[in-house]
Protein: Carbohydrate ABC transporter membrane protein 1 (CUT1 family)
Amino acid sequence: MMAISTFSNQRALQKYNTRDTISAYALVGPSLVLLICLLIGPSLAVFAISVTNWQFGAQSFSFIGLQNFRELFDDRVFLSSLSNTFIYVAVVVPSVLGLGLFVALAIESRKEFQAFYRAVHFLPVMATLAAMAIAWEALLHPTIGLVTRLAVQLGLGSWNFLHDPRLVLATLCVIGVWQHLGYAMVLFLAGLKAIPSDLYQAAEIDGVDHPLDRLRYVTLPMLGPVIMFLLIVITLKALETFDTVAVLTQGGPENASELLLHTLYVESFQFFRTGYGAAMTVVFLLIVIAIIFLQAKVLDKRVHYS
Structure:
């Protein structure tokens, strides 16, 4: 009798587990299908196209192996855009994090006009970047631009910010910092409000009473998760910069403002070298994955989550 009861329980448990498994697959199924269709499938397609000589709109193509990749690293334009992209990211990301934290601390320290300052700094995040790029083009015009005229009035001479190879990348970096500053500021403000005031009181009792010491020993450690998140997100946004280059400089002059995403677009959709553009996309994707993985691996050990 005991054996029959045990067998019945096992059958019931197996039936229950099978039903749970089917339910789990049914719930996960739509998301898995979308993931394959929207992420995994296109990524595999790009890898496949990168080893062909396919041109956009052509009816046929040939397998050429790694020829696109060999040509890529002999291409002066690509190497220039790769170098410019690394410089752009190296300037924009720490500047956004540093200034975002500074602005957040300044707003949090004063109660007057907090909503106004938050709105002013967050406006570039909400605005259409193409429209803002046109506004920057007017401000930086070499003859009638407000910034240029102000520089002349201050005795600094006339500056051609968007057409001088020595200035154009720095100008794009300034615009990039302006664009992302509000996003970092808002997240830092949220992080600052989440820090318990008891920690500051305890630190003061322990002799940590100087503002810089409180920042170093209390504020920054507690903002660790926010800093890590912002570092990854702002890095991705900087690597994806396209609009400002396309509207303001088109990669010129002399490829001084060429960034990877713009070069990829030009090769794929203006010169119709789709296989070559796909190879560039693969390199771009590998760079993004490597940078984000390195950041997450290094910072995760330094972040306090509680």
